[in-house]
Amino acid sequence: MTEPGLPLAGLRVLDISSFIAAPAAAVVLGDWGADVIKIEGPDGDPNRRIMHDSANYPKGKVNYPWHMDSRNKRSLVLDLKKPDGRAALDRLIVASDVLICNFPPLVRDKLKLGYDDVKRVNPKMIYASLTGYGESGPDRDRPGFDVTAYFARSGLLDAQRYEGGPPGVPVPAQGDRATAMTLVSAILMGLMQRMKTGEGSWVGTSLLGNGLWSCGVVAQAALVGAYLPHRPPPEQPRSALGNIYRTSDDRWLQLTIVREDKMWPGVCETIGQPELVDDPRFATVQDRRERSGKLATILREAFAGRDYEHWRKTMSAHGITFGVISRPQDVPDDQQAVACGAVVATAIAEMPKTLSNPIRLSFAEQQVAKSAPALGQHSDEILAEAGLSPDEIAALHESGAVP
After folding, report:
1. Where are the beta strands (DSSP E) in 48-189?
2. CB burial class (10 A; 0-12, 13-18, 19+) of residue 285?
3. Is 203 helix (H, G, I), strand (E, B) or coil?
4. Could you count the other beta carbons within 10 Å of the beta carbon of residue 226?
């Protein structure tokens, strides 16, 4: 149910989506107080089983993908292929504010679930659409996942690969979660427009559009005819001061020196070779770029001589810009992730910690995550709230529209 005191309290959201950007957007709205109703088919959202079905998901005893992407939601099972099931959805649409859908356009048309269909039922509805490749164009009906549309089609995978190597495959749902935040923004803009006009609207985004936006520097360069060859290996970087290095305890550091002339002396002091400041081979930015392989060798040998903790303290003391390349197994012990609110406690007994959405507000804190719902856990309750009588609900069960 809706959570009093949160900025989206009183907002009802129908989440008719799966895999993963659209449901994740609904999660964010629920985190900030919206009543999110997860509408599933009789077989349930496939995301309930993704941990077991996908080879790329870490396996565990806790169904963490489902909890993460469906926390604080209520589940209603409706067979939208049955006329009475589709009619029951209209009753819910009348009583709701936002509908999130990521069915392909052809499926939406078949189910009479396009924007025009919904607008006829509730002209004040904010209809939020997520597609792989957009609402128009030759690929509008093409199925899209984040790896195919966000990463592959946008050029992100190719832009990140090393010279001579294959593109790397991203971990699951990276592009989905970034895209979810865009969809949240679009929904909030739709709600602001409704406050001004009293009318609903269509809002949306695509995985391809978000992938291109994330790949903005390289993609915009291409639009004006500017290109870089594939990234050279770390042994021959374009800049040795913007490169990765391994420490003695097998950790990796990302060195990112933007203002080289200011920070170059500090780098030399950090690695214990202050004489490099006056070395004519590396006197200027251009010299360091022309001899990036030689400088990378010096830095690689230096960083390999001590452990990460030494370099963390030393570089921090000299004001050097760096980042440790964390491993997923480091997240549970990352004190900063907890301090900044990225990792939070839950009310889920089997999953006591989770990732929060990245929005922070001075006037409210997102609600504590509660367990994701069992399939159809709230079906009768939700239908009754939408005004269906006990007899009407019983008829839906009898027809199989509500299993």
Report:
1. 73-77, 98-101, 126-131
2. middle
3. strand
4. 10
The CATH number assigned to the domain with range 12-216+347-399 reads 3.40.50.10540
Give CATH superfamily name and number for 242-329: formyl-coa transferase, domain 3 (3.30.1540.10)
Q: Tell how far CA 171 is from the center of its chain.
A: 11
Spatial separation of the C-alpha atoms in residues 55 and 392, rounded to whole Å: 43
DSSP H helical ranges for 169-284: 174-197, 207-214, 216-223, 260-270
pTM of the model: 0.93
Q: What tens digit of pLDDT does each residue of 219-263 get?
A: 999 999 999 888 899 999 999 999 999 999 999 999 999 889 899
- All CATH 3.40.50.10540 domain ranges of the chain, comma separated, are 12-216+347-399
Q: Is 174 exposed, middle or buried (0-12, 13-18, 19+ CB in 10 A)?
A: middle
DSSP 162: B
d(CA 33, CA 184): 13
